[in-house]
Amino acid sequence: MSDEDESMPESNGLGLDYILKLDDVPSKLPPHLELFKTHVLCNSDAPIHTETIQYSGVYASLGVDNSLRLDSFCENFKVEVKRLTENDMEFDMIGIDPSIANAFRRILISEIPTMAIERVYMANNTSVVQDEVLSHRLGLVPIHADPRLFEYPDNAGDEKNEKNTIVFKLHVRCPVGQPRITVKSDELKWLPNGSEFPCEDVKPNAGSKPKTFTSFTCSQDSLPEFSSNPLCPTYPDIILAKLGPGQEIELEAHAVKGIGKTHAKWSPVATAWYRMLPEVILSEDVEDELAEELKNKCPVNVFDIEDIGRGRRRAKVARPRDCTLCRECIRGGKEWEERVSLRLTIEATGALPPEVLFTEAVKVLEDKCERVITELS
Ligand code: SF4
């Protein structure tokens, strides 16, 4: 072996790193290709360069490696929270492909579990709302319960216990001679000891308690996680039905753990969406009447006008994040397309309930990746 051969790294996966660090290996694309790779451009009729370039050898003739490398992903990936309130969160994910942002969106909508009413045992319903419609409405009432504290129901068996079922009771009656009443979700009362309705087909032994629709071994309110945090609907004012004089509803509603893929009632988010971050660039100075015209073209007020002295004014991009890409500012002739450039950077924004949901979505994606790796190995 020659001296030169001995100075080469072993073929143990580090060889690629060695080659990429050599001075004569280009690491960046020419600016126009870099722009097409990292941005979607918006013309007045349609966006262009919308495809993600994933093939690792696509720039091989230029000597640039396009393969996805874990170390550069870890170096560049960032999550920046822009807005966080009790019910929604907006954040930027920087350094990922839109397909991964979309994976998080889909997981949030359909694979993060929640608790929702699945079975309704109707004892009496003389309201104008049919049993099945009322049951459907009850299913859509969000339940304030942490699903991580519960197990999935056992589909194979009938065992409904304190670990997989939450029981609510609803019993409302509108007395004769009284005005109509509105039944709201706050009428759903938690039964920590489980169902109180006896199973009609099971006769109790003498002296024993009648069998009900659940088999709780202890009261849920004796468990530390629920004793200080009683289970109830998230919102108390969701209208379920209206009762006229003499009408009555009596039922038991059993909530179980599930995911939005099975039924939308288990979806934890009202909506989760992403978009690529818009960039609005003025390619030339837009001044005076044109500045005023540009400002008036934009329906969401992206542009401001600044005073540049001697009575002259110039348009500036003040709120690019608000841009909805309606493309109004580049309509009205070729000259407007030349003055304003609309681009989307390959980033993502989502609006969703609190940060814990996103953390759960990351765990779900992690599990999926592990499953694929196990199956491949
Ligand atoms: S594309 Fe529409 S929203 Fe965006 S800057 Fe132009 S006019 Fe405003």
UniProtKB/TrEMBL annotation:
Entry-linked SUPFAM superfamilies: Insert subdomain of RNA polymerase alpha subunit (SSF56553), RBP11-like subunits of RNA polymerase (SSF55257)
Localization annotation: Nucleus
* Primary gene name: POLR1C
Name the source organism: Mucuna pruriens
* Similarity comment: Belongs to the archaeal Rpo3/eukaryotic RPB3 RNA polymerase subunit family.
What is this protein called in UniProt?
DNA-directed RNA polymerases I and III subunit RPAC1
Sorted alphabetically, which Gene3D superfamilies does this protein's record hold? DNA-directed RNA polymerase, insert domain (2.170.120.12), RNA polymerase, RBP11-like subunit (3.30.1360.10)
- Tell me a GO biological process for this protein: DNA-templated transcription
Q: Name one GO molecular function term.
A: protein dimerization activity
Q: What is its main location?
A: nucleus
